């Protein structure tokens, strides 16, 4: 993988160096007191035993997570290492979680971590060895420092009662295999020769693909124009695909680099990767076929209803993951309401309360999605952060946001929120009356039609409109209540 990158890196960069004076760990999860792993990590799905998977710690993807199942007593050994022989070492921290049952039949949670490792002896990489009982587990990898960037591999071995996942990738073996493939429809393509020809999410996808190939996501490529100057003939291709069996939209960013085909495959209008294009081959698949064993409980992740227990349905699938929800009728569903309390049932919420009144709906139709990572705001530029919404109905009735920003001059800030369809609503617009050095918001977001898809990637954009002052986004939480369209 990344033969081009290996050739471009100098020997000094390849060898790298590690110092002992690293300071305190950046944004560490806590060992007790709260569900610390729920910070919207990049979810890579199931980690198969004895099969290495790779990921990249970047400014936009600082936390990476995988799941695995154990059916009885077993000894597991999980470790991180280099993704490419000889690459610059990446200072990782590895965490292990066990899934816990939800309270009063609610969604399952991961809870606090049960094991952590920073350095495996004298190695910069991390390792956890542990005896586990039956259950579902998560491995989470992050960088030690806020500045940690780079590609790593993770591998897991298991001795004892281990469940070997039967993951079947839905992607073909090679990028050219999409052509005339009966499982896929190609809904058009574009050749891009100038940065001005792309905007919004597509521009971000193209920049991510260029950085992935040329600088391993370290953001050495300043912008899309600089990246286009590096590719063969200064041109890249955007291909729009649909997987017919699941109606899953995919967007491919493909280009030539040294006479080889490279790039990334994304889920629709998002930055969530479905796979990588390397030397014309499709690698590191993140689009898998649903299993036929109905083992997933209410509130657990699923790819299709076939994975959910009897009486449950897989709802709100985005990027190969939805949530198993109950289809059982609830007394009071559909009654008029002005608040949750008016529904008179903890299993119901008031959908539409922020828009002057609404109807009682099942509680699973409301979700809260957090990005708790602390993010430095660019000076006189726009900083974007995303969360992935899954498991809801189809369109919104209420959208709310909570956020906290430290900034010497909040009056310089403009904040917007974009839904998966690209519609953007203004959350905050600074003006001369804005004072203080801390901006805390907890409010409804007005400006969405209530007739666009909610499951997908939502994007928060914070724009600093003047030079000279910088700030920090301490975290934000998106709340969405949905209904059927």
Describe the structure in your own words.
This protein has 485 residues and is mainly beta. The protein has four domains: 3-10 and 30-162, Jelly Rolls (Sandwich), CATH 2.60.120; 175-283, no CATH class; 301-364, no CATH class; 368-483, Sandwich (Jelly Rolls), CATH 2.60.120.260. 6% of the residues lie in helices and 42% in strands. The chain has four helices and 29 strands. Strands 1, 2, 3, 4, 5, 6, 7 and 8 form an eight-stranded mixed sheet that branches. The protein has a six-stranded antiparallel sheet with strand order 9-10-11-12-13-14, covered by helices on one side. Strands 21, 22, 24, 27 and 29 form a five-stranded antiparallel sheet that branches. A hairpin with a 6-residue loop joins strand 19 and strand 20 (358-362). It is globular, with a radius of gyration of 23 Å. The model is unreliable at 1-20 (pLDDT under 50).
State the main characteristics.
485 residues, mainly beta, Jelly Rolls, 4 domains, 6-stranded antiparallel sheet
| Beta-strand residue fraction | 35-45%
Structural class by SSE content: mainly beta
Radius of gyration: 23 Å
Mean of residue pLDDT?
87
Please outline the helices and strands.
Elements: H1 3-8, H2 11-15, E1 42-46, E2 53-57, E3 63-82, E4 92-98, E5 115-117, E6 127-132, E7 135-143, E8 150-162, E9 184-192, H3 200-214, H4 224-228, E10 236-243, E11 248-256, E12 261-267, E13 273-278, E14 281-283, E15 301-302, E16 312-318, E17 321-326, E18 336-337, E19 348-351, E20 358-362, E21 366-371, E22 375-376, E23 382-389, E24 395-406, E25 413-418, E26 424-429, E27 438-444, E28 456-464, E29 472-483
Parallel strand pairs: 1-3
Antiparallel strand pairs: 2-8, 3-6, 3-7, 3-8, 4-5, 4-7, 9-10, 10-11, 11-12, 12-13, 13-14, 15-17, 16-17, 18-20, 19-20, 21-29, 22-29, 23-28, 24-27, 24-29, 25-26, 25-28
């Amino acid at each position: 993988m990344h033969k081009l990158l290996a050739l471009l890196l100098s020997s000094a960069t390849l060898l790298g160096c590690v110092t002992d004076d690293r300071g305190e760990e950046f944004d560490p999860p806590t060992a007790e007191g709260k569900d610390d792993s729920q910070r919207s990590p990049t979810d890579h799905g199931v980690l198969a035993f004895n099969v290495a998977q790779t990921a990249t710690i970047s400014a936009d993807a600082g936390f990476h997570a995988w799941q695995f199942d154990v059916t009885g007593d077993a000894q597991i050994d999980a470790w991180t290492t280099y993704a490419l022989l000889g690459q610059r070492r990446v200072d990782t921290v590895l965490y292990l979680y066990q899934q816990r049952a939800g309270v009063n039949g609610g969604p399952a949670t991961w809870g606090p971590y049960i094991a952590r490792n920073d350095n495996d002896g004298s190695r910069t990489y991390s390792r956890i060895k542990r005896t586990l009982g039956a259950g579902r587990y998560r491995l989470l990898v992050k960088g030690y420092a806020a500045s940690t960037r780079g590609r790593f591999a993770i591998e897991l071995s298991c001795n004892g009662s281990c469940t070997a996942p039967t993951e079947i990738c839905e992607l073909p073996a090679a990028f050219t295999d999409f052509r005339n493939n009966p499982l896929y429809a190609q809904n058009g393509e574009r050749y891009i020769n100038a940065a001005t020809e792309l905007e919004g999410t597509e521009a971000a996808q193209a920049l991510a693909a260029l950085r992935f190939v040329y600088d391993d996501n370290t953001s050495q490529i300043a912008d899309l124009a600089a990246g286009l100057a590096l590719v063969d003939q200064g041109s890249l291709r955007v291909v729009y695909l649909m997987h017919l069996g699941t109606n899953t939209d995919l967007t491919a960013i493909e280009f030539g680099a040294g006479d080889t085909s490279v790039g990334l495959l994304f889920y629709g209008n998002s930055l969530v990767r479905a796979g990588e294009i390397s030397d014309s081959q499709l690698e590191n698949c993140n689009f898998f076929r649903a299993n036929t064993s109905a083992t997933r409980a209410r509130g657990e992740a699923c790819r299709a209803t076939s994975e959910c227990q009897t009486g449950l349905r897989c709802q709100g699938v985005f990027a190969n993951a939805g949530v198993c929800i109950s289809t059982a009728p609830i007394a009071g569903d559909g009654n008029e309401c002005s608040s949750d309390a008016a529904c008179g049932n903890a299993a119901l919420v008031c959908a539409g309360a922020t828009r002057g009144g609404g109807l009682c709906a099942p509680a699973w139709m409301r979700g809260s999605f957090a990005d708790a990572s602390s993010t430095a705001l660019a000076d006189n530029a726009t900083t974007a952060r995303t969360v992935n919404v899954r498991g809801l109905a189809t369109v919104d009735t209420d959208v709310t946001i909570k956020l906290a920003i430290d900034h010497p001059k909040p009056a310089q800030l403009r904040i917007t929120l974009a839904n998966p369809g690209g519609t953007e609503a203004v959350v905050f617009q600074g003006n001369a009356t804005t004072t203080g050095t801390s901006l805390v918001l907890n409010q409804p977001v007005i400006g969405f039609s209530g007739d666009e898809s909610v499951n997908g990637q939502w994007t928060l954009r914070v724009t600093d409109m003047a030079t000279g002052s910088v700030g920090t986004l301490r975290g934000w939480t998106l709340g969405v209540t949905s209904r059927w369209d």
